[in-house]
Amino acid sequence: MSKDKKKIALLNDTLRRTFIGGRITQTRGVAALPEETREAVLTAVREFESFEPGDDPYGEHDFGAFTVDGTKFYWKIDYYDRTMEHGSEDPADPSQTTRVLTIMLADEY
User: Fold this and answer.
1) Three-state DSSP class for 66?
2) Among 16, 34, 81, 94, which residue has the fewest nearby CB atoms (within 10 Å)?
3) pLDDT digits (tens, 9 = 90+) for 77-99
């Protein structure tokens, strides 16, 4: 894995585990869940470590799939420029990248 890919994975892991270093969003379906379920979903995102080659082919740790209470969820990290108008030219450089972690029901993907 390249140095940049390792740095991107580290930045993504930090955002996912701490919710610091970017923006966290959830879909309407997740927002409509009971509070206890939403808390379990957030905990599952923070504790996620099951990176599979099919879901993480570039080793960036930018996607995960998991189940809570029999319901399948996904989380995804996207990279935007600082203005949030375009994709980031260098996701390994936090000075020019805004990370956005979105948590969704699998059927909302």
Assistant:
1) strand
2) 34
3) 999 999 999 999 999 999 999 99
